[in-house]
Amino acid sequence: HWMQQLGLMTSKVRDEMKRLSQETVVIRDVNSSTRLKDFADSYPQIFDMLWSKMSLFPHSTRIVEQTHGMERHAFNSQASNDMRDARTNYMACHEYENRRDRRSLVLARAAEAEKASSTTDTATTATKRSKKQNVKHNDRKPTQKMGGDQLLEASQRYTAASIIARTTESVRPHWKIKKKQLQR
Questions:
Q1: Which of 19, 96, 116, 157 would you label with 134, given CA atoms 20 to 30 Å apart?
Q2: Cα–Cα distance between 86 and 92 in angstroms, integer?
Q3: CA of 177: how far to CAs of 172, 174, 180, 183, in Å?
Q4: What confidence tens digit (pLDDT) does each residue in 35-81 have?
Q5: pTM for the full predicted model
Q6: Chain centroid to CA 132: how far?
Q7: What is the distance between the alpha carbons of residues 103 and 116, in angstroms, rounded to a whole number?
């Protein structure tokens, strides 16, 4: 599966993959300071395929450090691996976009404030300076409102009607509401 994802099972690299797998002696200099270039010279099709595929991958160090930071600050030994995976997926996909939107709102408000206070500078200079200046952190109402709106928008996926619409007819008869939950 992994070999197919990297494109190493295609006809373009098949002959070189056979030659690489049948190497019994090392044909490249082990002590070379340019081992990657030597590999590219020996197997140009494989190197080209790996280069094209790897350029599309996110940098692994960044992904690992991001996940490490999330796990370090939110680790719970009682949570299952599925729960941690779901939280990591949410933070990497959805929450990142939400934070980016809130950050752009703050920067836009700072640019407006700088533009309004600066009458001698041109608009471009004010915008460039506002991105570098410190943003006032006591002015949080617009970002709090945006965070609430984002949360409400995301929660629409979990309304009773949307959950029922996403489930199959065969599962619905097995749903039961416990009496204890009704008494609360």
A1: 96
A2: 10
A3: 12, 10, 9, 11
A4: 888 888 888 998 888 888 777 666 666 667 767 777 777 777 888 88
A5: 0.43
A6: 25
A7: 20
